[in-house]
Design goal:
Blueprint: H1 17-22, H2 25-29, E1 57-62, E2 65-69, H3 85-97, H4 123-138, E3 142-146, H5 165-173, E4 178-183, E5 190-193, E6 199-202, E7 215-221, E8 225-232, E9 237-240
Parallel strand pairs: 2-3, 3-4, 4-6
Antiparallel strand pairs: 1-2, 5-6, 7-8, 8-9
Length: about 250
């Protein structure tokens, strides 16, 4: 945190399983890792203000370009008081999909993402996301979404996906504005462009990076594309914006 404070630009933090291994959600909410104070609000559109207990918000660093931070552990057994209804609800959901004694094991699962070190998005958060994307569509904004957990199978190990990644994809694919989805979690990274022209980038994790290497990158934004200039393990990428989106696929 001391190093971050030396920067002259805002720093936005997302929360993942490693935060919740060490801190409770209540602790994080009251810590400097909560950067929700940096959010932008859309005048006359109260439906775009998050009202739930999830940690998510959006901001506009320059006109016509919106970033959305999602809480992919909104549904989770990590960092939650075990006596709370939310914990019991999430544990029930997890055990319905994972009968293993060791809930971090995907062994034998038809949906291997249902492990304890993952989480998911509440319907309340997905409804909020839909409202923000509707506004961005109407105002011809481009949107980048950031989440600790990835949601697109072609860009990730299936064990590392959000529990209800299909629900998140369904919301995103019903809009024109999303150009890129950044995630972490997989440690080894990953990339794929989905059929709707959304670039899914899982950034390589510093947690498994050799001491003599690096794992970070800089994004350069242009009217027609974004460019990722990686350092160390992070791969350089060019993400062109698709000019037209296909009709939604029924799956």
């Amino acid at each position: 945190m001391n190093v971050f404070q030396r920067l002259k630009v805002p720093v936005h933090h997302t929360w993942g399983n490693h935060e919740f291994y060490n801190f409770s959600r209540d602790y994080l909410t009251n810590s400097k890792l909560n950067t929700k104070f940096l959010e932008d609000q859309i005048e006359h559109h109260p439906e775009t203000v998050p009202t739930g207990s999830f940690y998510a918000y959006h901001f506009v660093p320059f006109p016509k370009f919106r970033f959305i931070l999602l809480d992919s552990y909104d549904l989770s057994v990590l960092g939650v008081d075990q006596s709370s209804p939310k914990y019991q609800q999430c544990l029930k959901m997890l055990k319905e999909h994972n009968p293993n004694m060791e809930l971090n094991s995907p062994q034998g699962l038809s949906e291997p993402q249902f492990v304890q070190f993952n989480g998911g998005f509440s319907q309340e958060q997905l409804n909020w996301l839909n409202e923000v994307l509707t506004f961005s569509d109407t105002n011809q904004e481009k949107v980048v979404i950031v989440s600790h957990l990835p949601i697109y199978p072609e860009a990730s190990d299936s064990v590392c996906l959000a529990w209800n990644y299909r629900d998140a994809l369904a919301v995103i694919w019903s809009h024109e504005c999303v150009v890129c989805f950044f995630a972490g979690h997989t440690h080894d990274g990953g990339y794929s462009e989905d059929p709707f022209g959304v670039h899914h980038i899982n950034v390589e994790g510093v947690i498994e990076t050799a001491p003599d290497s690096q794992a970070f990158g800089t994004i350069y934004v242009y009217p027609d594309k974004m460019m990722l200039k990686g350092s160390g393990r992070v791969t350089d990428r060019i993400m062109n914006y698709r000019k037209e989106k296909p009709f939604p696929l029924l799956v």
